[in-house]
Amino acid sequence: MTTFDEREKDFEARYKHDQELQFKVKARRNKLLGLWAAGRMGLTGDAVEFDGGDPHVVDKVCADLNGKGQNCTPAQVKFELDHLAEQAKQQIMQE
C-alpha cells in the first residue's frame, strides 16, 4: 500500500468519525433543548425530542413555548441551541 493510499484511508476514517460525532452531538443537543423547553413549560417526564434541521427546531420550540404562554423569540432558542451544542459536545466527548 502506498503512502497516498494510507493517507486516503486515514482521511476517510477521520471523516466518518467526525460525521458520527456531529450526529451524536446534534441529537444530544436537541434532547437537551427539549428538556429546557419542557422545564419552561412546567412539563415533567420525558421531553419531546425534535427532528429536522435547526430552523424546524427553532420554529417548533417557539410555537410550543408561545402556546403555553411563555414569551419566546427565535433568537432566544438559537442562543440556547448554541449553548446546548457546546454542552452536548462536552458530554459526548466524556463518554
Structure, explained:
- It is a single chain.
- The protein is mainly α and 95 residues long.
- Helices cover 78% and strands 0% of the residues.
- It has 3 helices and no strands.
- The chain has helices spanning 3-41, 54-67, 74-94.
- The two termini are 34 Å apart.
SSE diagram, text form:
Elements: H1 3-41, H2 54-67, H3 74-94
Helix pairs in contact: 1-2, 1-3, 2-3
In a few lines, what is going on in this structure?
The protein is an all-alpha fold and 95 residues long.
Order of helices and strands: HHH
| Global outline | elongated
What separation lies between the terminal Cα atoms? 34 Å
Question: Structural class, judged by helices and strands?
Answer: mainly alpha
Low-confidence stretches: none
Instruction: Give the fraction of residues assigned to helices.
Output: over 70%
> pLDDT average, as an integer?
88
Proportion in β-strands = under 5%
What Rg, in angstroms, do the CA atoms define?
A: 18 Å
